[in-house]
Amino acid sequence: MLSEAWFKQCFHHVLPMENSAPLIIQPRVRGVDVAFFLHKYRSEFNALLCEFGAILLRASGVEAAEDFKRISDSISPESIPYDEKSTPRASLKDVQHVYTSTEYPSRLKIDLHCENSYAHVWPNKVLFWCKRPAEQGGETLLADTRKVLATLPSWLVAECQHSAVHYHRTFSAELGYEWQAAFDVNSIPELEAKLRLKGYNWEWKDGNLLTLRAGKWLSEHPNTKEQVWFNHAHFFHPSSVASALGHDPDAARNMAAALPYQVTFESKAIDDSAVAQIRSAFQACSYSLPMKRGDVLVIDNMLMAHGRNTFEGEREVFVIMTEPNTHS
User: Fold this and answer.
1) Which of 31, 46, 38 shows the shortest CA–CA distance to 7?
2) Dmax over Cα atoms in the chain, in whole Å?
3) Which ranges in 198-248 belong to alpha helices (H)?
4) What is the dihedral of CA 243, 245, 250, 252, to 10 degrees?
5) pTM
6) Coil, strand or helix: which one is 86?
């Protein structure tokens, strides 16, 4: 695609020179119908996405949510709702499956993660549209999960290959999501049918829903067949959750029972040193991307983790998730 004559006439590109940086594609002149070309050359674009993990469409011509949805549909028409929710975001009323990016306070950094990797269903692709960049900070963080896996110590990878990661969640009105909002249901029978379908174990305690779901630490990418680090373990670890909730991470162990998320190596706790190794690997492989107004970032959700730096001022970024996937 990058060497084709039609592409060179209409676009120029910047190859990534740094760790986990995206491929950047930009029209040479104003007025290029980016969505048209993405639709016509969808297979070529997706091949590039598998190679680089993330592609930034600069000067994409996106000025409204409808434009963003058209770009998304041209790449991957199967957009999906945000289900099995864990973070606050709002949906746009007029354009289906367009959401605000995670609405954490600007003073909090959002750790690198793969969208919904804790869930029964996750999106293969995630698209971000920057409507308004922050006055300062707010960069999008990226990390290639293939490189993260290669950076992790062999003893940790070996242990993960022979055990499951268990996600424990508590749904209550006091902390995190209530079950009605998280699973988009209104009744307990409807909820329990959905939990059963998605492979959850659950119980009720003091009126609150407690769930357990077993997942994988590593997964095989459906197209490239590469092994990738694909889980939510360090993101749901008490040190991360306590920080996101505004608590001192050092006190996380003492308050773990009250947190809405916990993760374990099956029935045993994840050692702090293992979490530190995971964080270190993500940090070593990370790239900080300043997004400009009108940018559209397309990521392969299994190949590229994403996050957000702290920021000052207003920041408006919207997201679309596409192509549902699940473990067979």
Assistant:
1) 38
2) 65
3) 233-236, 238-244
4) -120
5) 0.93
6) coil
Percent of the chain with pLDDT over 70: 93
Joined tokens for residue 201: 């174990």
3-state helix, strand, coil in the chain (%, to 5): 30, 30, 40
What is the enclosing helix (H) or strand (E) of 251?
A: none
Residues 6+ apart with CB under 8 A from 56: 22, 23, 24, 25, 289, 291, 295, 296, 297, 298
Task: Give the architecture-level CATH label for domain 147-282.
Answer: 4-Layer Sandwich (3.60)
Scanning 103-255, the segments in alpha helix (DSSP H) are 145-151, 154-161, 179-183, 188-197, 233-236, 238-244, 252-255
Angle (deg, nearest 10), helices 65-75 and 42-52: 90
Virtual torsion, Cα 111, 179, 91, 103, nearest 10 deg = -30
- Here the tokens at position 52 are 């680089």
Among 166, 203, 170, which residue's Cα sits nearest to residue 188? Answer: 203
CA distance 205 to 211: 11
Distance CA 201, CA 212 (A): 5
**Assigned token pair, 282:** 């993500």
Structural Rg of the chain based on CA atoms: 20
Give yes or no for a contact between 86 and 102, defined as CB atoms under 8 angstroms apart: no
* 116: alpha, beta or left? (left if phi > 0; alpha if psi -120 to 50): left
The Cα–Cα gap between 90 and 82 comes to 10
Beta strand pairing call for 54-57 and 23-27:
parallel
CATH code, residues 4-107+122-136+289-326: 3.60.130.10
Structure tokens at 53: 């993990």
- Is residue 98 classed exposed, middle or buried when 0-12, 13-18 and 19+ CB atoms within 10 A define those classes? buried
Q: Choose between 86 and 173: higher pLDDT.
A: 86
Equal CATH topology for 4-107+122-136+289-326 and 147-282: yes
Dihedrals φ, ψ of 233, to 5°? -60, -55
87: pLDDT confidence band, cut at 50, 70 and 90?
confident
Tokens of 99: 């959401």
